[in-house]
Design brief:
The protein is of the alpha+beta class. It has two domains: 14-148 and 298-309, 3-Layer(aba) Sandwich (Aminopeptidase); 158-286, Aminopeptidase. Helix content is 34%, strand content 33%. The chain contains nine helices and 13 strands. It has helices at 3-24, 35-44, 54-59, 102-119, 132-135, 178-188, 197-206, 248-262, 277-285; strands spanning 26-29, 47-50, 65-70, 75-84, 88-96, 124-128, 144-155, 169-172, 209-215, 218-228, 231-239, 267-273, 289-301. Strands 1, 2, 3, 4, 5, 6, 7, 8, 9, 10, 11, 12 and 13 form a 13-stranded mixed beta sheet that branches. Strand 10 and strand 11 (231-239) form a beta hairpin. It is elongated.
Length: 310
């Protein structure tokens, strides 16, 4: 058999294997009854990465876009995506039974996600960072790097002295602040990083600390920080564009750090865009240091054809 004949035979066999695999694979949206099998997939299988805790996965199983791939013997894959109107869907959970036909399985699952995103008028699917096995897959499915994220950590250093702002009052945030917080969030961040109202509402109830900076009854800044085990995290820090350059962001960061120190937290993490050099200078002033390599933010434009049409 010639080399060309061998390659032709190999290709036809490969095509047959993939066709056989896809014919056995079923793609569908999850229901609450699937959680027991999803839990088994998360516990015992080859590749899992999740931005949600297990209780949140159970709670949001049908609230988010949850697509599963299964055959007659087992659940083979899971994709959970959070729609963040009006611009993007964020991949929050990825799990696969093994690495057999991973690319083919994703090819079959992603259109189902896209279909639901289109129903919400969202035209971009986004993945932030992730393990190498998944990051290597993304370009095969039309994802490109849109931005890079840098991670900073603070390790028990003293905080800098800051002069108080003459008009700024800091207090705990409450639910009545939600409309102002949403407006401020959209004024502060680019569309990719907007937090929807539902996420802000949830944070008001669950965050370790959520405080606002007020000037003349107007919320001009906020900070949201969390605690995971014995480590703190500055999840969000925002200052109204009209009030920048007055040291308000630094005061809000100081407030967050002081609250975490009161809990005897010795390590605090945060992240920001690689291009946001102003924020990086502020964090370095507080003793934060960059750790690790920048993390890619991957983005995929959603095609016009829907899952039901494919």
């Amino acid at each position: 058999m010639t080399k060309q004949e061998t390659m032709s035979c190999f290709n036809s066999q490969g095509l047959f294997v993939f066709s056989w695999f896809l014919s056995r694979l079923k793609i569908r949206y999850a229901t609450q009854k699937d959680y027991r099998h999803i839990e088994r997939l998360l516990d015992n299988n080859w590749a899992v990465q999740a931005r949600l805790f297990r209780d949140d996965i159970r709670e949001k199983l049908t609230e988010l876009i949850t697509v599963i791939a299964e055959d007659r013997t087992a659940m083979r894959g899971l994709l959970m995506v959070e729609p963040i109107p009006p611009f993007l869907g964020l991949i929050t959970v990825v799990a696969f039974h093994d690495n057999t036909n991973l690319t083919t399985t994703l090819d079959a699952m992603i259109p189902a996600v896209e279909d639901k995103l289109k129903e919400n008028q969202i035209h971009c699917l986004t993945q932030v960072g992730g393990d190498m096995w998944f990051a290597q897959e993304l370009p095969k499915h039309g994802f490109t790097v849109r931005e890079r994220i840098v991670i900073f950590e603070w390790h028990g250093l003293s905080l800098p002295y800051l002069r108080p702002h003459p008009c700024l009052h800091i207090r705990s945030a409450h639910i009545d602040d939600l409309p102002q917080l949403q407006v401020l969030d959209q004024l502060t961040f680019s569309p990719m990083w907007y937090k929807p109202k539902t996420t802000l509402r949830e944070a008001l109830g669950k965050a370790a600390f959520f405080s606002v900076g007020v000037v003349e009854d107007k919320i001009v800044a906020y900070q949201w920080s969390d605690v995971y085990s014995e480590q703190g995290h500055i999840t969000r820090l925002a200052t109204h564009p009209d009030y920048r350059g007055q040291g308000i962001g630094a005061i809000m960061l100081h407030d967050a750090m002081r609250s975490l120190l009161d809990l005897n937290i010795k390590i605090v993490g945060l992240n920001t865009q690689e291009s946001n050099t102003d924020s990086q200078r502020l964090y370095q002033k507080f003793g934060f240091q960059q750790v690790g390599e920048p993390i890619g933010v991957y983005e995929k434009a959603i095609i016009n054809a829907t899952f039901s049409e494919l």
